[in-house]
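Job type: complex structure
Entries:
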Amino acid sequence: MQAIFLYASVFLACLMGLSLYRSVFGPTVLDRIIGVNAIGSKTTTLLILIGLIYERVDMFVDIALAYATLNFIAVLAASRYFQKKKGLFDEVEGR
Amino acid sequence: MSLLDIIATAMIALGLFFFLGGAIGILRFPDFYSRLHPAGKLDTMGQFTALSGIALYLLNDLSLGSVLTALKILLIVVFVFITSPTATHAIVDAGVRAGMTPWTKETREEGRR
Amino acid sequence: MSANTKPDNPNNPIDYQAYSPFKPFEPPTPPERSPLPYFFTFCVCMITWLVLSGKFDLFHISLGVVSSAIVTYTSGDMLLRARRLKGLPGNWLRFIAYVPWLLFEIFRANMHVMRLVFHPRMMDLIDPRMFRFQSRLEDETARFIFANSITLTPGTITVYVSIFGKYTVHAIDKASGQGLPGEMEDRVGAIFGE
């Protein structure tokens, strides 16, 4: 099983490289946010796989949980930062 | 290898397959609205299957510690299932408010001419 | 126009009654004071503490009780309102019965998007579009669950939900957007008895 976890981790790391392309060369800021979000969701899984390889899952699962929380908050804050203000009832006129 | 190990391996492989689809979809799709479809959802499904597989593998020895770890992994899965739509909606909302027009087939044919 | 439909600010340019299709705009009612939401929040905090700490001696459990009590005192009425608990336990059981169907639907739609991603002529197959529809769901939680279910199903993303229940959805191709609002809305409505 250890070999399976090792190969899965290497594969995930390669996929993170693919997502990194989008977050570096993305045409807009929001594309970069999408790339970073994809990398974060892969990292959550990768952390638990690393914990299985080192046989310390009980420790790494807490780190993964904290990382998932941080990823969510980072995406939320970044996408709230890069937007214009718009009123709640703006859509009413368009009905 | 026990039966549980085989099931766990299959689920992890399925999760990695979903992750692969998500990563390639982010690269191939034309604009950021359509890139959100693989980014937000295929990754969520990949996390769900891969983490469930790992939780199944941990249940091989039924001690208190491994059961608690499996419960924590399930907590991560539930957390991801609640937060992933919220994050996706935040990104798409930022795009709409910034006034980005979605890519459609018509704009593509205009670009060809 | 009766008194409770008039907005507080007389300079507010929006006439709510003229725009709302089915009901006058009601200002949010102040939450009822009830011990049930506080008790529920305390239980959720305590279970999370026990799972995360993993130590069951007296010292750690008393620490958890104190922390959960502080969190419950400061923000106990934010997780659930008192009227949300009225449908217990029927709503919750029906919601748990809804989750497997949603998971199966997510899996099916995932396969569809995976086929699109790996298809060599992907650019000809996809046809992104934004469309709107009016949902018949009235309850806020039902609208929230419906919007999140739409977003979790690959191929469709909820862009915006207005306060009158009008959904703006972005779909990746024709087939993904066709089923809305269909069986999913019926099932979400059935949870809340609508």
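Summary: Chain C touches chain B at residues 48, 51-52, 54, 106-107, 109-110, 113-114, 116-118, 122-123, 126-130, 147-148, 151-155, 157-160, 170, 172 (CB under 8 Å). Helices of chain C lie at 16-19, 35-53, 58-79, 90-118, 122-125, 140-152, 174-178, 183-191.
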